[in-house]
Design a protein that fits this description.
mainly beta, nine-stranded antiparallel sheet, 12% helix, 33% strand, binds fe (ii) ion
Length: 795
């Protein structure tokens, strides 16, 4: 059945060669512009013409795989067109398949229907020349600055020029046509308006632009002014009251040799998939679970996805799964999976059209074989702040390293992802607002996720909270949209559950799936793969909020006073993991069926390994958001983990650290690897030397800020390595992410030697060229299994 691992490796090597050539161009921090995969460079015999399918698309949120809508929740397919629901500024729909890459000829046209005008008409039509500093189609989608060409009030506008449009203030419909023609190193654009019914010309305007001004993404735009973008923050999900106008767009055509056409840039309706494979050690054997994600479809669209696997050269259907109408995830659970062989899979979504026709869409990948009898190689990632989107240096390094397992420990999104603010309630628009942010995660990392099992934990930002103290699912008393130092969940439970589904529906079955308060779902449990046992923990779902103690400062979760006695914060009855997870971990620590090495996967580190937060002078003695607090249940959690000899792998901090926990004594317990952020936003540092924090037994390597410490909560922590950031100043997003200490972790589990080989890679590097500067100081290091119960070797 299927391709073998070596066949996959050969295919990957081939891909790697072309990528290496690409990486040379990346070293200065600028990545290759457009992907050449599947690109059709416009030539005489290569048609570039494209018209949207909205005329035969059922009413729905998702505009189609050829488009990216800004923001998704403000657009609908309605009456055969793409309709903007919001009166705010800067709404747009980008073409993903057509980018202007050269000064040549092009034509775009669209039928515009003016649906509503607020205080004044913000204008609508085309916005082109949209390019980020990378000029890469995904990052270009979030650029507001471009060249406007459209209809506003009774005028046509084209860049700096305007011209009267006959009856423009009373007309309801106009067909706009924008033509570009190269003249030397200039491009002459001509915008013409025609009556929708008679075709009579109603106005025209022409202007000459520099050739570079037209390069990049093209879009249809509703309300050219970007000023009202921030206004969406107060939006509770209704069509906005702030603004200008709203329009419906139909028959958007694109054509011409100025375009590079890249069908492979499509994103949806099958967006991506994530799967897990685990030895259940029950009669179900290996269980393969897979989630297919689609965009939000309509009531008359197909609600199912089909899974096929290749067996003996033929595709065999394993049936269909129903899409969850909130999360738009269809999850398959296949017991008795033959994990000895890799199996190519294919997901099929049959899109139904209003004319009765159907378009099958496919997403393919490989369910790998269980990596038995050889080391298991796992990538560990966290925290994607979207200034660094699409994080191509990390995504490309992952493809080169070809991990057996990919772990995202949280903050797959931040609330500000993609602009246009946050919708907190009601649940339905809040979910759409969340989904399009989460789609950026899949858009960035779907290539590695299609061929490797993926575990993906939701953390605080994923549920729109700066911090989370879940208190067993409690509803937060009063909405706190800021630092979130109150216990409980801000968001409606229905939204939280949609977040959980998108992240973990494909995980191995939960240990005990009984929901918590408000019927919020839980996901803790284990996975056994490649001879390694993984405990998957939600280290904040039950955690007590800081409201139960007094920190004496401006923020309930921060201790800024270096003389504050944090022992007072260890009040009886406070919770870290909660009874249910403690009971699970106790059992798991003793359960060695099917594996010989263990790891605990959770969101954050059980030590307060940061002295400065937010800025280089932002000293904090203690942060209650760290897993170091509350101290008693923290120590209990470590004691429960100790017999498992598990390595604790986590993230969240935006500061990579390698730390050994101590409970009774320094260095008597498990090690923790906190991985770098994929793209670090809020910065943290660990600078105990400068703060004159006492330490003993600095490791042999002698790096600053390492050794045995009592952290801000008085917990014992042996900090072996830390990757402090610089201040992020670069204009280029990838250079900036690199400065800020971004990157990713990689762990090789050797089940024969009983070792963990731990690597912490920086952002803008080639992880395969072996340069010592690729990793943060102190990495890589090899840890022996027994060191996780204090039988220390390393020093
Ligand atoms: Fe984060």
């Amino acid at each position: 059945m299927g391709t073998t691992r070596s066949e996959r490796c050969i295919a990957l090597m081939k891909r790697t060669i072309s990528r290496r050539t690409g990486l040379k161009l990346m070293t200065a921090g600028t990545l290759l512009g457009f992907s050449t995969r599947n690109a059709v460079h416009a030539a005489k015999d290569q048609p570039t013409a494209k018209t949207d399918d909205w005329a035969k698309t059922h009413d729905r949120v998702f505009l189609g795989g050829e488009y990216w809508a800004n923001p998704m929740e403000d657009w609908r397919v309605s009456e055969g067109g793409a309709e903007c629901l919001h009166l705010g500024g800067g709404r747009s729909v980008h073409s993903l398949t057509h980018q202007v890459t050269q000064n040549g000829a092009f034509t775009m046209s669209v039928l515009l229907t003016r649906l509503e005008i607020g205080k004044s008409d913000g204008g609508a039509g085309f916005r082109i020349g949209l390019r980020s500093e990378l000029n890469e189609h995904r990052s270009n989608c979030f650029v507001q600055k471009g060249l406007n060409a459209g209809w506003q009030g009774d005028q046509l506008l084209l860049g700096p020029k305007t011209a009267p449009l006959k009856d423009g203030s009373v007309l309801k419909q106009v067909r706009l046509t924008l033509k570009g023609a190269a003249e030397g190193n200039k491009c002459v654009l001509t915008l013409t308006a025609n009556a929708a019914d008679s075709g009579a010309e109603l106005g025209t305007v022409s202007h000459e632009f520099g050739a570079e001004e037209i390069l990049g993404n093209v879009s249809i735009a509703n309300n050219f002014a970007a000023g009202a973008v921030a206004g969406a923050k107060k939006n509770k999900g209704k069509a906005g009251a702030a603004g200008a106008g709203r329009y419906r767009f139909q028959n958007w055509t694109l054509e011409g040799n100025a375009f590079t056409v890249t069908p492979g840039n499509r994103f949806g309706p099958l967006l991506w998939s994530m799967y897990s494979l685990s030895d259940s050690r029950t009669e179900d054997g290996f269980v393969m679970k897979l989630s297919a994600l689609t965009g939000p479809m309509g009531a008359k669209d197909s609600q199912v996805v089909e899974l096929q696997v290749q067996q003996g050269g033929a595709w065999k259907s394993l049936g269909t799964a129903k899409l969850d109408p909130d999360a738009w995830v269809a999850t398959f659970r296949i017991p008795k999976w033959d994990a000895k062989q890799a199996a190519p899979y294919k997901l099929v979504y049959r899109e139904k059209h209003t004319d009765g026709s159907e378009t099958p869409h496919e997403w393919t990948g490989t369910i790998t074989a269980d990596p038995e009898g050889r080391p298991l190689r796992m990538a560990a990632l966290t925290c994607q702040n979207d200034y660094g989107f699409p994080y191509a240096p990390v995504a490309e390094n992952l493809l080169k390293l070809d991990p057996d397992l990919v772990f995202f420990s949280g903050d797959q999104i931040y609330e500000n992802h993609g602009g246009f603010g946050i919708i907190r309630e009601p649940a339905e628009p809040a979910i759409l607002n969340y989904l399009r942010k989460f789609y950026q995660h899949g858009w960035a990392f779907r290539e590695v996720m299609r061929n490797a099992p993926t575990l993906c934990l939701p953390d605080d930002h994923d549920v729109f909270q700066g911090n989370i103290w879940g208190e067993g699912g409690r509803k937060m008393d009063v909405g706190d949209t800021g630092a979130s130092s109150k216990g409980g969940y801000i968001e409606p439970a229905r939204m939280v559950n949609a977040v959980h589904k998108t992240n973990v529906a494909h995980h191995p079955d939960a240990y005990d799936s009984k929901p918590v308060l408000q019927d919020i779902s839980v996901y803790y449990g284990d996975m056994v793969y490649g001879g390694v046992g993984f405990a998957i923990i939600a280290d904040r779902q039950w955690k007590s909020g800081p409201g139960h103690v007094a920190t004496g400062g401006a923020r309930a979760d921060h201790v800024a006073d270096p003389n504050f006695d944090t022992a007072k914060l260890d009040k009886a009855g406070l919770v870290l993991l909660g009874e249910r997870q403690e009971e699970f971990l106790k059992k798991w620590a003793q359960d060695w069926r099917g594996h010989t090495l263990k790891a605990v996967l959770s969101q954050t580190v059980f030590a307060n390994v940061a002295t400065h937060h937010g800025g280089p002078d932002g000293y904090l003695k203690a942060d209650l958001d760290s897993g170091s607090w509350p101290q008693t249940p923290r120590n209990r959690a470590v004691e429960i983990m100790r017999p498992s000899m598990a390595l604790h792998i986590n993230g969240d901090q935006h500061l990579t650290t390698l730390t050994q926990y101590g409970v009774e004594q320094q260095r008597d317990s498990n090690w923790s690897f906190c991985t770098p952020a994929i793209s670090a936003g809020y910065p943290r540092w660990w600078r105990p030397d400068e703060m004159k924090m006492p330490h003993t037994n600095r490791p042999k390597h002698g790096h600053a800020n390492t050794g045995e410490y009592l952290d801000g909560f008085g917990n014992k922590a042996y900090v072996y390595a830390v990757g402090n950031p610089e201040i992020g100043q670069a204009a280029n997003r990838y250079d900036k992410a690199h400065e800020k200490g971004s990157g990713f972790g990689f762990i090789t589990f050797d089940t024969e030697k009983k070792t963990y080989f731990i690597e912490s890679f920086r952002f803008l590097i080639d992880a395969t060229d072996g340069k010592p500067t690729n990793q943060f100081p102190g990495w890589p290091m090899t840890l022996q299994q027994k060191e996780n119960r204090g039988e220390n070797v390393i020093g």
